[in-house]
């Protein structure tokens, strides 16, 4: 699913115009980014937690030349799924009801 498909799904579920659904989605995403950028956790109970994680400086190798390189420290966003999200993803799929064979004449 891409962003446009998500907007269409929100619009259909909430009976909103697509433009308004797109603005709602953008507002939610902006709030997540701003909260994590401010080094605060954003927890959506049952869904998960977004937070900022520090990645320390490290050394590595250039894949082309094999020369050693230094990789600077950086901050990366991290998502930790909640229990309800994990349970929903791991729930067994429901089987479709078996079709009855048509009687032959």
From TrEMBL:
Listed GO MF terms: DNA binding; structural constituent of chromatin
Keywords: DNA condensation, DNA-binding
Keyword Flavoprotein: no
SMART domains on file: BHL
Keyword DNA-binding: yes
GO terms for biological process, alphabetical: chromosome condensation
A Pfam short name: Bac_DNA_binding
Family: Belongs to the bacterial histone-like protein family.
PANTHER family for this protein: DNA-BINDING PROTEIN HU, DNA-BINDING PROTEIN HU-BETA
Protein name per its UniProtKB record: DNA-binding protein HU-beta
Gene: hupB_1
